Amino acid sequence: MSHRLRFNVSIPLSRPDLPPLDALVPMLEDIWESGVLSNGGPYHQRFEQALREQLQVEHVNLFANATLGLIAALKALGLQGGEVVTTPYTFVATANALRWAGLTPVFADIDPHTLNLDPAAVRAAIGPRTVALLPVHTYGNPCNHGSMADLAGQHGLKLVYDAAPCFGVRAGGRSVLAQGDASVVSFHATKVFNTFEGAAVVCADARVSERLARLRNHGLDPRTAVEEPGLNAKMSEFNAALGLLQLERVAQAIECRREIDRRYRQALGGVSGVECLALPAGVELNHAYFPIFVGAGYPLGRDALYQRLQDHGVDARRYFHPLVCELPAYWRAPVRQDELPAARRRAAEVVCLPIHPALTQAQQAFVIDLIVRPHAAPAVRAGAPA
Ligand code: T4K
After folding, report:
1. Structural domain boundaries enclosing 146
2. Is 8 touching ligand 1 by the criterion CB < 6 Å?
3. 109 within 8 A of 339, measured Cβ to Cβ
4. The CATH number of the domain where 348 resides is what?
């Protein structure tokens, strides 16, 4: 289906939260006046610094998107071939980044309750060629960092987090982006915090940070020239200026999402055969997604419910079905087809429901009604005003 059609649905899965255009205009005038559009200009520097302060971390490097950020992070940590244990229950970019960095993804099973990598399955997947772990904080729900860090430490592995959906997520009072040797967060249009396209890589080590800064800019180093081939993965001044404005809005956007999450839970929590993801203790979530899992006790199968939502203009998604290891590009990746039972089950059950600050109460009620009364005609018209 074309993007044009998918964007024209009555109730989109996600809709970017944007500042008033007027607020951006003086910044654009400034950029036009200076003629500095890219290559680490003043907005880039300001946004990077603002993120360091907001996240309370020492090293942040902006990137054009999280896929390039992941590739650069893997390279900057010195990984040059070998296997990386990761999850099959993710967006394909996680595994694509490994391949582009010259690494082999090895898929391990997830914990069916958190949707994150199961530490026991990770341990079983670690072999003599393993060089790193690449867990994903699925839907922004933090991984068990203690277990991942222990496994990495015991086996001498690098620990890189694909934290693409995690802006604003805190565990134990700290941003989850501070975890691991590096964490990569996406600022894509569909994310809780967007700069149209964009990303940041947070890392613990100053030398890794310097290498990241070189790798995103063709490998150029003003002192030593080019020592290794880099990428062009820089964030432009436009994206960085927008990022500065978005920082002022994101807390309010998360608050709206929290309220939508609360209403979904209240309405769907008691529906037989529908399971909501448990809220983890001690974590400030950003409510990036609202997945439900459709089990045997529900009158419709998952795909029938998905189709019902689509037929009524609701852009629900089956993230992350099919699993990455079921995509033709990854059929040869190391995993036996009878493995990964939890990931396969969850991929067969999941439907992600619309959640974004522009979702009206009437729209949400319409979505809920389609689920709660699976055989009834819709009670209200899709897209009806709040
Ligand atoms: N790792 C993980 C775990 C990820 O989830 C992602 C990205 C990455 C790495 C890579 O990050 P980046 O390199 O992108 O920074 C979307 C996004 O394109 C992708 O960024 C995201 N994950 C993935 C989960 O979802 P699609 O193809 O499913 O999105 P699309 O275009 O169908 O849009 C989804 C909804 O958002 C629709 O309701 C329309 C709405 N939308 C979308 C865009 C792009 C808008 O309203 N405006 C927009 O501009 O992939």
Report:
1. 21-247
2. no
3. yes
4. 3.90.1150.10
| pLDDT value at residue 60 | 98
pLDDT value of position 378: 78
Q: Whose CA is nearest to atom 17 of ligand 1?
A: 190
DSSP letter string over 117-185? BPHHHHHHH--TTEEEEE-B-GGG----HHHHHHHHHHHT-EEEEE-TT-TT-EETTEEGGGSSSEEEE
CA 12 to ligand 1 center in whole angstroms: 12
Pairing between strand 290-294 and 283-284?
unpaired
Query: 354: Cβ below 6 Å to ligand 1?
Result: no
**pLDDT surpassing 80 at residue 255:** yes
Q: At what angle do helices 93-100 and 66-76 cross, to 10 degrees?
A: 40
pTM of the model: 0.95
Mean pLDDT for the stretch of residues 204-219 = 97
What is the C-alpha separation between 177 and 169, in angstroms, rounded? 8
Instruction: Give yes or no for residue 87 CB within 6 A of ligand 1.
Output: no
Tokens of 114: 């958190």
* Size of the chain in residues: 386
| Residue that finishes a domain, picked among 247, 273, 301 | 247
Q: Is residue 11 part of a domain?
A: no
- Closest to 335 measured CA to CA, from 317, 322, 323: 323
- pLDDT value for 196: 98
